[in-house]
Design a protein that fits this description.
Chain lengths: ~110, ~900
């Protein structure tokens, strides 16, 4: 895994995990692989943070978990998003988009001071 | 995938799961790294390093999972409880009658408790409707020897303002006045206050304005405020009342405002006033009034009192009484409630609590019965793995449903209870008709309902938990039955004892009231009408003018046909005037420093005794022809029999002399019979003396003896008075019997309530007894059926059942009698002329209790006869 991982604020972990799970149920390793693939390697979420995040999401009932066979027929814990989780994903991604837009507006602003 | 509410996992299990999950991840990463060329060991090491803080992650995940588990557990608990409630409700509804009886029992208890709670809260705990009520105090002048409280003089209150403990002092002078509207004159209560009084209480006028400072000087504008209740009653709440004029004591006042409803509430000695007037205090005025103070935060009544004492000790030229005889006393306003009212309330609260206990016991009976019936089901559940806790929760659910049901129904019932209490209550308990339920009533109802039900459920649940599945399923019922039976018998004993205590209390009060009401009143209470007038001071300014008026009215009344006799007096039982002072009897040594004696003192015309029907048993009455004593001679007085018996035992008191408080000597010329001078149940006025009415000593009461019924006499009297002077209001017109009955209004009220509680308690214990016996019969169906099959006759079976029932009742009665003797001491202050050990009351109550029990047993026994042998043998 690449060394340069961006420092991510706490809420963003949740939104990434929820997004990852929004199509399919996955196990932790699968999520980690997906995230790397989607962000072209930029988001290398630390595994420790990922697993803590998953368990946290389960506590908040945004995902549920169940044991099942992996692609290699080993026993793995799969996570699935819940309707509550989908709602949260919608809210959080809207918030992040707004934040990013505002941020870019500031960054792109020309200096008006003479 | 479903959301699994899996079985609970222990922390260890959770740890293992987390370990497995993380291990899976590490294995995958290791294999991935191996695919890019690393050796297994290197890959593994790299995987672990790049993972991050592995031990921390493990701990965090386990912690989070345990928290999730806990919530899941609570959700399943809740779900179980709701299911329980559902099941319990359905099964309760199947036994509609018994359930209704039990809920009803509980509801009765809750209703009485809640109603009494609202009454108590209002009367005893209701805050003074002033701002910062906890700092409001009332200042009195107390006589240092007799401890009697008097209203302080207004000028004194002015000087008290200097006390640093007080943030503010305000006075209110209460008086009565004659209000004249059209042709009718009526007596009203007035209150005179300064413009600062309303701000002191934290209220403002709801209509119009407060007084202005320029109206508070002598000769200022005549303005008045209307009291809220008076405004509603007399003016129908007309908002256009501002600017109207009223005639008070022959002066015209303009209405400038209406005071808020809060000020109509009784605060200590201050009751609702019809009219509020501006207070003007002349520096030499002797007028008295109620003195309110607000303490500074942190000051106490005690410090205020000592400051006032110091202020009073300063030399004061305007003082008329010698210092040292009177001392100031400061009391919190919130504490000032009649002692007697508090005592009554405490007795009632005791009664209500007993009732609650009995109601709770009936619920216990009921739940025990259900537990026994359902024990087979419980056994099966236990065998299938339900824990003791789970079974207990089922029992709790049952108790909750009954408790909530009882609480809700009780709350609904408590409103009519309260209304009945208010309607029955005598006027002598002030403030009672302002009692309303507030939100706390709902809480109290649910608290008592659910609390009692839960308490009642403790025993059945505890016993249910001791269920051993195998013993039940194998049918070994005998030992269980005996235990349960003993327990229920115990409950019957307790219920009987408690309800008997209530019965005894009721019986004692009934006898006491009967004695008080049927005592020989000495006066012809049913034929004598007392008429109290008020002579307007502005028109009759001299004593002789007043005497002339009274004589003229008396003459007019004599002329009414049907009137046998008319006399004048300054008081009539139960409204006698009082007098106190140290008594000196000629020829006897009186110990120095004796406490002052208390006398009921009346001034009457010579024909008073004849008109009132009071027999003169020694000496003679007053001589109508004789004008009252010349200054040098002694004044003649007449005393009553008790007075004579106390101070001249065995000797004829006629001709003897006495004096009171060091005044002039009085000579006894006659003795009359006793009357209940201050009320039917009041012992304080047992020493009575009579003087002759004189121009210096005018009464305002006329006693009329006639054979006419009140509804005929009253209008004739009214027109006779109004014709002579329409400005003379009639303050009271009633037969003496009516007035005497009203004087025990509080006692009668207590009795009615207590009787209601006692009757309810007896019914409840009878129902309880009935339930126990029915249950016993159900237990012994086999035994009874066999007996019947073998030819036992009906009477023998009935007798067997009844004997079973009467045993615990007899024990209960014995214990109850013992309890009553203890409780009797509490009641003794409310009893008139009856000992709390009165045998008639005790025996009567015991007999009543036993008879009710006999009836209940008989009814149960009759049901036993309905058991056919076939049924018995079939029952299991």
């Amino acid at each position: 895994m690449p060394d340069k991982t961006l420092d991510l604020p706490a809420g963003s972990v949740d939104v990434l995990l929820l997004k990852a799970l929004s199509w399919n149920a996955m196990h932790g390793y699968g999520i980690s692989r997906w995230l790397r693939a989607q962000s072209d390697g930029a988001f290398g979420l630390e595994d420790a943070a990922l697993y803590q995040g998953l368990h946290r999401l389960e506590r908040r009932r945004w995902v549920t978990s169940a044991w099942g066979p992996s692609e290699t027929n080993r026993r793995a814990k799969f996570y699935e998003i819940t309707p509550d989780g989908r709602r949260q994903l919608g809210k959080a991604s809207a918030a992040w988009r707004a934040y990013a837009t505002a941020l870019f507006k500031v960054l792109d602003a020309q200096s008006t001071a003479a | 995938m479903r959301h699994l509410l899996g079985p609970w996992r222990t922390r260890q299990e959770r740890g293992r799961e987390v370990e497995e999950e993380l291990e899976f991840h590490l294995t995958c990463v290791t294999e991935e790294l191996m695919r890019s060329g690393l050796s297994r060991k290197e890959a593994r090491d790299r995987a672990i390093t790049t993972f991050g803080d592995l031990p921390l992650t493990r701990r965090e995940c386990v912690r989070l999972d345990t928290a999730t588990d806990r919530r899941v557990r609570w959700v399943s608990h809740l779900r179980d409880t709701l299911t329980d409630i559902h099941i319990v409700t359905r099964s309760l509804l199947r036994q509609r009658l018994t359930t209704a009886l039990t809920v009803g029992t509980l509801a009765l208890g809750v209703a009485s408790t809640t109603a009494l709670w609202s009454v108590t809260r209002h009367l005893l705990l209701h805050p003074v409707p002033f701002r910062d009520a906890d700092r409001v105090v009332i200042a009195w002048q107390t006589n240092t020897t007799s401890r009697m409280k008097l209203f302080p003089r207004l000028t004194q209150a002015e000087r008290w303002r200097a006390a640093p403990s007080f943030e503010a002092i305000e006075v209110a002078r209460t008086a009565t006045a004659i209000l004249r509207i059209d042709a009718t004159a009526e007596i009203i209560t007035t209150r005179a206050v300064s413009d600062r009084f309303l701000p002191f209480t934290g209220t403002t006028t709801i209509l119009g304005r407060n007084f202005l400072p320029e109206e508070l000087v002598a000769g200022g504008q005549h303005v008045a405020l209307l009291g809220y209740g008076f405004w509603q009653r007399r003016f129908g709440g007309d908002r256009a009342v501002i600017g109207r004029t009223v005639r008070i004591d022959n002066a015209i006042y303009q209405v400038v405002g209406v005071t808020p409803e809060a000020l109509d509430r009784t605060v200590g000695p201050l009751r609702a006033a019809a009219i509020w007037l501006p207070l003007v205090v002349a520096p030499t005025s002797e007028e008295q009034g109620v003195v309110f103070g607000r303490l500074r935060p942190g000051a106490t009544a005690a410090t205020a009192e000592s400051e006032l004492k110091r202020l009073d000790a300063r030399p004061d030229p305007s003082r008329t009484t010698p210092p040292g005889q009177w001392a100031p006393q400061v009391e919190a306003a919130a504490v000032l409630m009649g002692q007697r009212t508090a005592r009554t309330l405490y007795s009632l609260m005791g009664a209500v609590l007993l009732l609650m206990v009995i109601a709770a016991m009936n619920v216990t009976h009921f739940l025990l019965g259900r537990a026994v019936t359902a024990r087979r089901e419980m056994a099966v559940r236990a065998a299938l793995g339900a824990t003791r806790g789970r079974l207990a929760r089922h029992g709790l659910a049952e108790a909750m449903v009954i408790g909530i049901g009882g609480g809700l129904v009780g709350l609904l019932l408590s409103t009519p209870f309260l209304t009945t209490i208010i309607r029955l209550s005598p006027a002598s308990i002030p403030g009672l008709n302002e009692v309303r339920h507030d939100s706390s009533a709902g809480m109290v109802a649910m608290l008592f309902g659910v609390g009692s039900a839960l308490a009642a459920a403790l025993v059945p649940i505890w016993r249910g938990g001791a269920t051993k599945p195998w013993s039940l399923l194998s049918g070994a019922r005998a030992s269980q039955g005996k235990d349960s039976h003993r327990l229920r018998s115990l409950l019957v004993v307790v219920e009987t004892a408690l309800s008997l205590t209530l019965l005894v209390g009721t019986a004692l009060l009934t006898r006491s009231l009967w004695r008080a009401e049927h005592q020989d009143t000495g006066i012809r209470a049913d034929e004598v009408v007392a008429l109290e007038l008020r002579l307007p001071e502005w028109r009759y300014q001299t004593n002789s003018a007043r005497m002339v008026l009274m004589n003229e009215i008396t003459a007019r009344l004599r002329a009414i046909s049907g009137v046998v006799g008319v006399a004048q007096s300054s008081g009539v039982p139960p409204m006698s005037g009082v007098e106190f002072g140290t008594l000196e009897v000629e020829g006897r040594m009186i110990a120095p420093g004796t406490a002052a004696s208390f006398f009921a003192s009346t001034s009457v015309t010579a024909d008073y005794f004849a008109v009132a029907g009071l027999s003169v048993v020694a000496g003679h009455g007053f001589d109508p022809a004789l004008s009252p004593a010349a200054p040098s001679a002694e004044q003649a007085i007449i005393i009553n029999q008790s007075f004579a018996a106390q101070y001249w035992p065995g000797v004829d008191p006629v001709g003897k002399r006495l004096r009171i408080g060091g005044d002039a000597w009085l000579r006894v010329i006659g003795v009359v019979v006793d009357v209940p001078a201050l009320g039917l149940a009041n012992h304080e006025g047992s020493f009575q003396l009579y003087r002759q009415l004189s121009p210096e000593d005018i009464g305002q009461i006329i006693v009329i003896r006639s054979h006419l019924p009140m509804n005929h006499l009253a209008p004739l009297v009214r027109s006779a008075v109004a014709e002579r002077d329409p400005d003379v209001p009639i303050v009271t017109m009633a037969t003496v019997r009516q007035l005497l009955n009203d004087s025990v209004g509080t006692e009668r009220f207590t009795l009615v309530l207590l009787a209601a509680f006692a009757v309810t308690a007896v019914i409840l214990s009878a129902a309880g007894l009935f339930g126990v016996l029915t249950h016993t019969i159900a237990q012994q169906t086999r035994a009874i059926g066999v007996r019947i099959a073998l030819g036992a006759d009906a009477t023998a079976v009935q007798w067997m059942v009844m004997r079973n029932g009467m045993m615990p009742v007899a024990v209960g009665v014995a214990i109850g009698l013992g309890l009553s003797l203890i409780a009797g001491r509490v009641l003794s202050t409310l009893l008139y002329d009856i000992s709390p050990r009165d045998s008639i009351a005790l025996v009567g109550a015991a007999l009543l209790s036993l008879s009710v029990a006999v009836v209940a047993s008989y009814l149960a026994a009759t049901r036993a006869l309905a058991i056919t042998p076939m049924e018995a043998l079939r029952s299991e």
